[in-house]
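In this section we turn from sequence analysis to structure. A common task in structural bioinformatics is to predict how a protein folds when a small molecule is present, because the ligand can shape the pocket around it. The inputs are simple: the amino acid sequence and a SMILES string for the ligand, here flavin mononucleotide. Study the lines below before reading on.
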Amino acid sequence: MSGHSASEMSRRKAQHLEICLDGDSYTVETAGTRLSEVHLVHHALPELDTATVDTSIEFLGHRVAMPVFISSMTGGSEAGYQTNKDLATVAQELGIPVGMGSIRILFRKPEVLDDFLLKRYAPDVPVFANIGAVQLPDTPHEPVFEMVRRLEVDGIAVHLNPGQELFQPGGDRDFSGVLDALRRFIDRCPVPVLVKETGFGINPREVRLLRDAGAAYVNVAGAGGTNWVRVEAYRQEDPVIAAAATEFDDWGLPTGLLLAAVGRDTPGVLASGGLRTGMDVVRALALGAEAAGMALPFVRSLKTGGVARAVDFGRRLKYVIGTAMALTGCSSVAGLRRAPLWVDSRLRADASALAAAWDTGDETR
Ligand SMILES: Cc1cc2nc3c(=O)[nH]c(=O)nc-3n(C[C@H](O)[C@H](O)[C@H](O)COP(=O)(O)O)c2cc1C
């Protein structure tokens, strides 16, 4: 793996966590998801026994308690290692999947392997590793596969983050050949591959390309939550680039808009980016997502009240999801994903416009 030294990576990861968690000093959420423009139809006659409402789903070969996962977050620093272990503990208690932060540092500093063995803390739920797509064209894939085997994970998330890289001091600049490299990676990877963005979204055409490339899941990871251009801007030493970052405050495709544009009939779609409440999850599922991920809310509750607070946050999510299912007459998550809904006219129009944005007959740029 090329690029930065282990100590630079550790410093960067520690700063990411600090910037994301210190809401008094930093603002990292700058846009909206547009999920508030999506409405489910309340049933006064749900005609079901709520004891039959089942929020569980099948995910990466496991039955998990609800269609929510803890999105990939940082490892790579002392604070990050502890955070990841705590997140894995929370996931195990809640019975939900958990992603770990990028494993890139393991190729620079193999002695931290122990800190990535999260299966010890979450033996009964899916755990997935994480790596950056931009590294895949120039690096051999076999060592990554070998690491995936050693970590005994159930999948690997590959993240797309060109916006973040362009504002990260020393970030990658060459994004050519990533799709091809991803195809080769997915072909030979020993576990299912989830492809995600980190908060600007994967557009509907790219969702199709990635599904065709063999991704088990495409996590649209849209705008509305943590804005990684902002996070990197706080670390920028060049004031001109830091100032340029402010022009990207509402960059990206809002999560709700993306899900509406991709449509309910596309399988293997996951939602994340700015989901903060159980009702956000319900709306994302109603738009067709198979499961929904959250990053910042889980680390924030860990910070304010430890594992117990984060577990309570998850229990609240489950209660909201189950109740919304009951009130829409759905006993299964699959039912919720087909439930009647209405979408405000502006979001409907924007989603159609976005879905049709490639209908120009001209694929060249
Ligand atoms: C502290 C922190 C560290 C993160 N590290 C990673 C990472 O290593 N790999 C990755 O794919 N995404 C990473 N993310 C991005 C999240 O997985 C997620 O895509 C993004 O934060 C948007 O979700 P949110 O609005 O719920 O925070 C990180 C997020 C946070 C808050």
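The domain at 6-355 is CATH 3.20.20.70 (TIM Barrel). As an exercise, try to locate the residues that line the flavin mononucleotide site and compare them with your own expectations.
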